[in-house]
Amino acid sequence: xxxxxxxxxxxxxxxxxxxxxxxxxxxxxxxxxxxxxxxxxxxxxxxxxxxxxxxxxxxxxxxxxxxxxxxxxxxxxxxxxxxxxxxxxxxxxxxxxxxxxxxxxxxxxxxxxxxxxxxxxxxxxxxxxxxxxxxxxxxxxxxxxxxxxxxxxxxxxxxxxxxxxxxxxxxxxxxxxxxxxxxxxxxxxxxxxxxxxxxxxxxxxxxxxxxxxxxxxxxxxxxxxxxxxxxxxxxxxxxxxxxxxxxxxxxxxxxxxxxxxxxxxxxxxxxxxxxxxxxxxxxxxxxxxxxxxxxxxxxxxxxxxxxxxxxxxxxxxxxxxxxxxxxxxxxxxxxxxxxxxxxxxxxxxxxxxxxxxxxxxxxxxxxxxxxxxxxxxxxxxxxxxxxxxxxxxxxxxxxxxxxxxxxxxxxxxxxxxxxxxxxxxxxxxxxxxxxxxxxxxxxxxxxxxxxxxxxxxxxxxxxxxxxxxxxxxxxxx
Length: 477
Ligand SMILES: Cc1cc2nc3c(=O)[nH]c(=O)nc-3n(C[C@H](O)[C@H](O)[C@H](O)COP(=O)(O)OP(=O)(O)OC[C@H]3O[C@@H](n4cnc5c(N)ncnc54)[C@H](O)[C@@H]3O)c2cc1C
Ligand SMILES: NC(=O)c1ccc[n+]([C@@H]2O[C@H](COP(=O)([O-])OP(=O)(O)OC[C@H]3O[C@@H](n4cnc5c(N)ncnc54)[C@H](O)[C@@H]3O)[C@@H](O)[C@H]2O)c1
Hints:
Helix content: 25-40%
Distance between the termini: 74 Å
Shape: globular
Low-confidence stretches: none
Keywords: FAD, Flavoprotein, NAD, Nucleotide-binding
Structural class: alpha/beta
CATH superfamily of the largest domain: FAD/NAD(P)-binding domain
Number of strands: 22
CATH architecture of the largest domain: 3-Layer(bba) Sandwich
Strand content: 15-25%
GO molecular function, one term: NAD(P)H dehydrogenase (quinone) activity
Protein name: Dihydrolipoamide dehydrogenase
Number of helices: 13
Family: Belongs to the class-I pyridine nucleotide-disulfide oxidoreductase family.
CATH topology of the largest domain: FAD/NAD(P)-binding domain
InterPro entries: FAD/NAD-bd_sf, FAD/NAD-binding_dom, FAD/NAD-linked_Rdtase_dimer_sf, Pyr_nuc-diS_OxRdtase, Pyr_nucl-diS_OxRdtase_dimer
Bound molecules: flavin-adenine dinucleotide, nicotinamide-adenine-dinucleotide
């Protein structure tokens, strides 16, 4: 029998991932009349099967990969090093468990304010959960996303890996086709290859890792292809041999045989079966309702859609921001518009792929100037055997105001943060060139890109340190 709770809650939060927990933090400050509902495991995608375990795996892979550079430093014996995959995976899970436990503390303390189960909307103020109907003034939907797996791939059983089960593996197949070269595919294909697995990468787009600048992409593809075969531009599909039961991957004219598949085809918002159709607003072709990204409100309803579930920018800091905005707006009289942060996407490949500010594909029809640096001859990068990669920086042609950058560069994660701070502050290339650069650092490479950009701008007053030029000597720039 369905129970109809008589209590009218202030807020129901559906989904206890990073977005839901961020909303919870704000809701909790203002009311005790809330319920947090989560289906399946608690502990967030980020900590359980996302950002954190993937980064632990990548760190192990890069630590081992370093042995390929030792000989050049004059350090011998590296060929005797080997990877114990079982131990690597155990360490991934051990750290993963610590990360998950840290997130569980928040929700365990809530006791009867949490419900485990699959929630479904019955309208803008009602939720059906575990045979009962809950009513609330506001509802925050933070149901996250899941890996896309085509139906005919699901029959593969153990041979099919996604990020939902990869980190649970005790051992890994000796050969693996990584299908999809977005951020997840690139990060994991490189890491698994560096750990000694025979990886083949497939991507239906020519662009990898979320890049849109073809010049940066070309460098990224060239560098990744030096580590594992990479087939781009054709959709991959699978076939299981009828006689030998061998798994083959086909993409255009390419066919390879692999022991296992890692599907990294993208992620789908968890909005199916959620009852969004009961809200009475139009849904787009993906089933998504209209969401105001400055308020996270769905149309003018008392309902908010945040995090991966709205498919706007499925990365952690954006999910956390959206939860924060929705948590505030759901507990205030008036809805407030928030200015969103400068876009920043980092792929933890080596060299690091990153996009910051406006993407190249959105700028190419505007009047912009582009500064560029290749790291092949950059002094500090050469000293560290990290001299590979490129940064391209975009600015307005008139004033040199920084608009964005794309890169595949050593220390790219840090360069991208520096540029994000500069873009947020509406700085020009000259403003950045006026600031200090220590010597010898990788940031001098970024400065070279900025100088090449400044050289294309109208001339400046020479009494300004921003015009201090390069020595044109590898050792000094
Ligand atoms: C392998 C991988 C690596 C990543 N690496 C990075 C990275 O390095 N940096 C970065 O910024 N981002 C990264 N991301 C993305 C980041 O993890 C996500 O953007 C973020 O975790 C999304 O948080 P969320 O709260 O929207 O969703 P989630 O954390 O998935 O939370 C949603 C919750 O809602 C529950 N739920 C779903 N449907 C219902 C329902 N009907 N009723 C009740 N509960 C429901 C789910 O079970 C889940 O617990 C990575 C993702 C993956 C998969
Ligand atoms: N470091 C990070 O910040 C990080 C890391 C991992 C994931 N993420 C987030 O997770 C989201 C999902 O990442 P993702 O890489 O899974 O998705 P994605 O959508 O970015 O990339 C998936 C890729 O798979 C390709 N593809 C789809 N079907 C294919 C097929 N049959 N054959 C070959 N290629 C195929 C698509 O063309 C696409 O390029 C990202 O948007 C990102 O926001 C972020």
